[in-house]
Prior knowledge:
Blueprint: H1 21-30, H2 81-139, H3 147-158, E1 172-176, E2 182-186, H4 195-215, H5 225-251, H6 274-297, E3 306-308, H7 310-318, E4 328-331, H8 344-358, E5 361-364, H9 368-375, E6 385-388, H10 395-415, H11 421-426
Parallel strand pairs: 4-5
Antiparallel strand pairs: 1-2, 3-6, 4-6
Helix pairs in contact: 3-6, 6-9, 6-10, 7-8
Amino acid sequence: MIVQKKKLNINAKPFHPEIDYQYSSVHMSQQNISAQPKPIENNTLKPKKKQKSKSPQKTNDVLVEPKLELDPKYGYWTYTFEQRNEFKKMHQQYLQQKAEQENRLKEKVIEEQLKRVCLIIANQARAFALLKQKKLKRRDPLGMIRVNKIVYELKIKQGKFNQKQKETQKEYIIQTNEDKKQEIVEKTKIKKPSKLKKVLQSYQSQLNKDAKNLNQDSDFYTVDESVEENQFQKNQTISTTQKKINLMTQTNPISNTEYHKMKIRCWVQMIPCKEVDDQALLLINQLSLMQAKKKVMEPKKFKKRLVAGFSEVQRTLTTIIPEKLSKLIIIAINIIECPLEFGIDHQILQILRLCHERDIKVVHASNRSKIGRAYCGKFGPKIAVVSIINYQGIEDKFQELDSLRVQQEEEYIKQYGLINLNKINQL
């Protein structure tokens, strides 16, 4: 007899005694084979694979329009009255469902469009916010606090903010138009300029006149005697401040040099630095915030911590009371030239003289606009001089600024040497 070897089926499943017992007994009985399953040597069974839950198939809700079928014998519709009524009902239901389906589709389209629009708006808002943050970092990298904004919020919380409207009587004037007709018009009030502005305007007008005279090529010109006398008196007033400035410019090698596109003036006796600028601005900002909060919260216990402006700074330097005397003075670098009497140069030289007499420290740092922002807020005025009276609570920052000032002054002395202020003050 020839025995044929059976080929092994590789893809065949393994036999399980409990699951496949019933099937094996029936199958084997048909082939006249014993139904008892063979024992397995190793009882290592493969774990059942978890069947994935089949997601229900999405059925497209397709509406079918009801139609009457033709009779094949006669070739036309044959229906009863009841069938006709049923067909009408079916047709009405079909129309309602169709209208509902169209509305749903329209709503879906509108929702998708709204989502797209919302995403576009959100992306634009994020981009705008990032640009705003970058601009703020460029303008205000130190992250200074807006004092005006915080004071406004505090006043609203406490109910102290009352916008007072000034009651002023309006004045009217009669004017003539281009058509030579008279009309009644409100009188515009012009603010009177301060002494500083008047002096500055006169100095600028004088410079413009000198420039025009240089451009003219006329050899002869006439001058009144009254004009010459007034000009002689003006030159006498200019001489004291201008002589001091000329001496300081000759002795100070840093004068008329540039620092961050700012012209350094002749009285600066320290090498300007960015670290000094940042530290001075932070100190001014925190002190002004503490001062403003105290004024709103506890007005009876309010005491000034710092002061700005030429007249108020000079008061802090000339007082006898030690509590009101200034401990440090910060002067901006970019100060406008005006060597006339009661001008900007005249007042700064006066402040420096008083500081030299009383041994008060002076720091030359930053810009007028930045100092104004630190003192008031975003839309603050331009401030040239600030005097610090009380620095309790911020002793660390005050000492850091003082140490930086000493370093910069020592570097200046090593490079250029000291300037004799006694000779300049004697003029």
